[in-house]
Amino acid sequence: MICDYDDEPQDDDSSSTKLPDAEKEIIAAKLFMQQCSTLTGDNLYDHLSEVLNKILSERPENVIDFFEEYSRKVKEKRFKPKNDHLEDMFVPPIQYATACKIIPLLKEPHDLDTEEQMLADMTRNDMLQLSYFFEQSGLGLPKSDMFALVLSMRKLIKTEPVASIRFWGKVLGLYKNYFVLEADLKEEECIRRNELLAELETEQLTETGAGGDTTATSLENLENEEEGESKGRKLPPIPKAVFKPLPEPPQEPSGVGANKKVYYVCNEIGDEWVQLPDVTPRQIRVARQIRKSFTGWLNQDIVTYPDFPGKERNYLRAQIARISAGTQISPLGFYTFKQGGGEGEEEEEEEEEAEGEETEGGGMKTSCLENRRYESPPLGDLLDSSMSFWVHHILYILPQGRTSWWNPSPKPEADEEEAVEEEEAEEKPVIPGPEPEIGPPLLTPLSEDASLDAMPPWSVRISSNVLPEYALVIVRSNLWPGAYCFTTQGKIFQNVYIGFGHKHVAQNFTPLPLPFVEQDYPMGPEIMEMTDPTGAEEEQWRIDHLPKLPLDAEGEEEGEVEEEEIEEDD
Amino acid sequence: MSDVEEVGEGGEGAEIYPYGEYEGGRDENLDRHGWGSALLPNGDIYEGNYRRGLRMGKGLYCFRNGARYDGDWRKGKKHGIGTFVYPDGTTYTGQWRKDLKHGHGTYHYANGDTYEGNWFRNFRHGLGTYSYNDVNVTFYGTWKNGRMEGPGVLKYPGYRYHGKFEQNLPKGPGCFTFENVWMQHGFYLNIRDPAFDYVGAEDLTLDDTEETTESEYRGNPRGIVPIWRARSVAAFKSELLPPSPVPLPYKDSEDSLISIMEYLEQQYTIATGENETDGYVDENDL
């Protein structure tokens, strides 16, 4: 404000015609001074303020005599030579890193030999086509990613024993994301793995057996000690807490049920694909009870209540199994149970599996085949919101954590023929046993799906109302946000999941209720101590049962005394 | 007593002795006194100290079924510090008073869970810590008559819940805290378990009536699940936590003067030896 008064006369001198505005003028002047030099990039305003600052901080005498010197020094200081091109550390640009990852994929030798084509079924992996459809449906990954994915998949099938492979989706994590591939293992590989698994199980069994022995011996020792303590009298054995945790259902072998497919993940395209371990029923059960974000590191510990048995790789595998079972769908009729002119091998497989199921899960069919005489349902049906023209083609996972129910208290093993007879004979004892869990059979229409909190489990829409002839039908799962399926008029269809790997919760997550609080042993006659017989009682009995000797008089006297004493006691 | 006498009078000479076996000291009234080992008429075994026919001092009482109590006795009752092994293998170690769990003690349950804390008239009462062995969770808080009632803290792996409890279940406003960095406020509702909808409604009503009549049942209410409703997330501030559990004030009856005198007397007899007890007999009988 004080400045205003000082400035006013000057302004009057310079421009008499216009009414001056001091603030405007100052701003204009400041702007002028702040104009950067085209050569050095400096500006007068900063320079002057720096010079004045330097002078004021140093306060030399007779500044005016060497003001230019100061100005030059400040300028000199600001001057940085531009020839410092050497950097201490090489920081490669991000693009370079991605390029380095993808270039080897591009250089991979590939020839369209028949052999290579035999490696694995890649027919459903035309990612560029898929990416076009993804784009139409309003989801998907960048085109470059899709392209690189195909390349890395082609590399993978050369090293891994897979029969067919498919892009499953992308699971988003807190720090890194996972690309997920779904593959069918070759039959030999499945057999090899199941043999390994069986070996492991037998080893574990022997180990636990040995462990049980040691505990038993230690308990025996304890008992012996106890017996040593008691002087003379033999005490009954100490009761032991008999608590048997419920038996854990065994893992489904590879190639069956929840372990039917194997999954490969990587954080970025071009990284090595890592195969996820097979899932155990317990992991699936616990995964249903917890809610934990993925971090992007496969070896991250999963600290939750209840305890998750495994690392993040196991958790990821369990979630993938759950998502697959819940959201892998196909148009009605694309898959079928039996095929008229099927190949011999396939039929055999089917028979074997069917046999296995009969003993385990009550004759449920566990596999389906592509229908060769498939005719796509009309668009209107596919768009029907009742969803009866879409079916699940992955088996439902039972509450037990398996697709086929495992009986925790099985009948004693016997030959198959006998078993059949026994089944008939032992129907009565079976009834009190645990009730088998039953899920919906394979190829159940989506219309049978249970809704959660009055929300329809699926929504369906069409990509274009203007051109329905070429439009896609897009099905979205509301239970698993991020799971989509699209189909081109029922001809090509693809399931994809791009999301955080969590199921929808209506309100918020509630931790699993705690188990019931144990109760103390109830008061009862079996733990009420008995009072000792009094000396008087014992004496009375002794006197009463004295051999009939001539000393009757004395005995009576004693008896009287006792009685008196008893009265006193009372 | 009279029954026994009648039996004795009417029985034959070869009748079995009905009072078990006893080896050990007796006083001038022929009551068991001093150290003794008894096989009681019902097959239980007691080895330990007696005083004038009653169990007093250290002793081990072993039931026929294997259950046992090893510890302090007074006037024929469990009183002091002792360990009880129950027929189902659960154990209680701690203070007793007049045959009841009372004071501070630890109970080990069959499935590995433990309760450590205060007891009042045979029930968990006051401040106590309950550890769920299987799931690695501990509860620390207030108990009333054997159930979680009042403020408490549940310690889960990775996070804690602070709030109030009713009938073993969290209920009402509370908050989850995450490693003392974040806290989530909200409240717990106790609603019917949807899984129980499939059970016949009759069964449930039956259960309810049982619960009302059966005052002994102190477990979790059946068919009720706690549901958490989150409201807001905030940075952790300890002053926003709900009230922390405090010990319950309860009145313990004082030891009567007479019993104190008896106790002193006992100490005296132990110190001087049993021979000199004769002088006190008259006082005691009075």
From TrEMBL, chain A:
One of its GO terms (cellular component) is radial spoke. Residues 202-255, 338-372, 406-449, 548-570 are annotated as: Disordered. Pfam families: Radial_spoke. InterPro entries: Radial_spoke (IPR006802). Signal peptide: none annotated. One of its GO terms (biological process) is axoneme assembly. Residues 205-221 have a biased composition (Low complexity). Keywords: Cell projection, Cilium, Cytoplasm, Cytoskeleton. Residues 343-360, 414-426, 553-570 have a biased composition (Acidic residues). Residues 431-443 have a biased composition (Pro residues). Its main location: cytoplasm. It is found in: Cytoplasm, Cytoskeleton, Cilium axoneme. PANTHER family: RADIAL SPOKE HEAD 6 HOMOLOG A, RADIAL SPOKEHEAD-RELATED. This is Uncharacterized protein. It comes from Photinus pyralis (Common eastern firefly).
Automatic annotation (TrEMBL), chain B:
Pfam families: MORN. One of its GO terms (biological process) is spermatid development. Gene3D superfamilies: Histone H3 K4-specific methyltransferase SET7/9 N-terminal domain. GO terms for cellular component: motile cilium; nucleus. SUPFAM superfamilies: Histone H3 K4-specific methyltransferase SET7/9 N-terminal domain. Keywords: Repeat. This is Radial spoke head 1 homolog.
